[in-house]
Specification:
The protein is α/β, with parallel strands linked by helices. It is built from 18 helices and 24 strands. The chain starts with a strand and ends with a helix.
């Protein structure tokens, strides 16, 4: 029996899954991660945390399913995109990695845009603070001693690959989010690298997601209990891996991923940049495929924040209470921009706002406002995709936030889109990575492995609620526009 492992190096956790030849799930594991915020707007993780958590996940998988673990032939990787890990000549991290939701490089984005007006058409999107290119420029300006010692730059999952195999490699989908990739040719762009001071020798080699990137180091294989001939598939950034996990690999396939962040993702068969819409036009994780992504920095994380503020650990109970009290669109408004926002605002200074409370406001009303605020943000991203040439009518839904049927109905009512959930879709990007690992050791075409699961349930928009939410969406937009000048002033001291 052929068994494969998928590892997802996420923001809040590392997740792992073992699948068999028929893609049945044989074991799962998860290890939590923490991130640091040393200053307002900063977000960091140490790369060694990714590696240690990955090792613990592999150990848990081995203990849970020892026979299948010993039969593993390949491993695929997925991971949070845009995390910049700078390594020295010995592949040791020079500093904590700067994550996707870090906002420090705003001035550097302005400098890159001024230096390269064509940046968006080459790199697929305008310069935004979360991308590695402006963050590297920030390092050059603010930490010259670290910049001078850089000998390698890797993304989150690729640091784990480097530790497992000794190979510096990445896939097209993860590379797409660096602002160093020429999306049309699927090669590193000399012009984009030069603009941010990236030495071409620092960057990993590029591979398609289903290609073999190397084999395990013998010592690492022995320590983990794996065959040293186990191959490592290139894998994919988490957005693309999530799509591969649910079979959304053909032109026009569209889905919502609602995790810590959120993405509206549409597969395309050509490269279609529309940088003025703030849509990300990126390479997909499989050959000859691209995508358009509306990237929202705030997905289910505002709900987790609210639960923490309320001192509640059971989010499902909070959701159930709000569902019971629901009487249609609420008047309370919530701007969900806890970490700034990309699509549709490119505003690193934006922050969360709860507007319209009175003496009768209770926890259930606030929960509903948070759910609606995220849904309004998704509606705005839908409009950006339409402007970029990707009209939507039906979307799949994956990620932890989609487990709530109540929330999915709100998303359908706000956006006017039909939302579909799938059987087994909660396996997420780790399952997509395992599928890529299976592709790497079989002769099957990607389409025969990356198939769609059966539809679990479907949420059609309620016409009455949709009309009410149209008014709410206008108020939501107006509130952000009114507050944007205040966001630009920054926090008071």
């Amino acid at each position: 029996m052929t068994t494969c492992i998928g590892l997802d190096i996420g923001t809040s956790a590392v997740k792992g899954v073992i699948i068999g030849t028929r893609q049945q799930v044989l074991a799962t594991a998860m290890e939590s991660l923490t991130n640091e915020r040393p200053r307002a707007g900063w977000s960091e993780q140490h790369p060694e945390q990714w590696w240690l958590a990955a090792c613990r996940v592999l150990t848990t998988l081995r203990l849970a399913s020892p026979k299948e673990f010993r039969s593993v032939q390949s491993i695929g990787l997925s991971g949070q995109m845009h995390a910049l890990a700078a390594l020295d000549a010995h592949d040791a991290p020079l500093r904590p990695a700067i994550l996707w939701n870090d906002a420090r490089a705003t001035a550097e984005c302005d400098a890159l845009s001024a230096a390269m007006p064509e940046l968006g058409n080459i790199g697929g999107v305008i310069a935004m603070p979360g991308f590695p290119a402006p963050k590297l420029l920030w390092l050059r300006r603010h930490e010259p001693e670290n910049f001078a010692r850089i000998r390698r730059l890797v993304l989150a999952k690729d640091y784990v690959r480097l530790k497992l195999t000794g190979e510096a490699a990445t896939d097209m989908a993860d590379a797409a989010g660096t602002l160093w990739l020429d999306q049309a040719t699927r090669n590193w762009s000399p012009d984009l690298m030069a603009a941010s001071g990236a030495d071409p020798g620092w960057l990993p080699r590029l591979l398609e997601g289903n290609a073999v990137s190397g084999r395990l180091r013998p010592a690492v294989a022995a320590e983990l209990g794996l065959d040293p001939n186990t191959v490592m598939a290139a894998g994919a950034g988490d957005a693309a891996a999530g799509g591969i996990g649910i079979g959304f690999v053909n032109a026009g396939d569209a889905y919502l991923s609602l995790g810590t962040s959120a993405q509206l993702f549409v597969t395309t068969d050509t490269y279609r940049p529309q940088p003025e819409t703030l849509i990300h036009a990126f390479a997909h994780g499989l050959p000859e495929r691209w995508c358009q992504i509306a990237a929202m920095l705030n997905g289910a994380s505002p709900l987790s924040m609210l639960a923490s503020v309320l001192g509640r650990t059971d989010i499902e109970t909070l959701l159930a209470g709000a569902a019971t009290r629901y009487r249609g669109p609420g008047r309370l408004l919530f701007l969900p921009y806890l970490a700034g926002e990309r699509t549709p605002h490119n505003d690193a200074n934006a922050r969360g706002v709860l507007f319209g409370m009175d003496g009768a406001t209770d926890a259930s009303a606030i929960v509903q406002a948070v759910l609606e605020g995220v849904a309004y943000s998704i509606a705005e991203s839908r409009d950006c995709l339409v402007s970029a040439g990707s009209p939507l009518s039906v979307i799949g839904a994956v990620g932890g936030g989609t487990r709530s049927a109540f929330w999915m109905q709100i998303v359908a009512d706000v956006t006017g889109l039909t939302v579909e959930r799938f059987q087994g879709a909660d396996k997420g990007p780790a399952f997509g990575a395992a599928r890529l690992a299976l592709m790497a050791v079989t002769s099957n075409r990607p389409e025969t492995i990356a198939t769609k699961p059966p539809v679990l349930d479907r949420f059609e928009p309620n016409a009455g609620n949709h009309a009410g939410y149209a008014e709410g969406l206008n108020r939501f937009r107006h509130l952000y526009r009114a507050l944007r000048p205040e966001f630009a002033r920054g926090p008071t001291t």
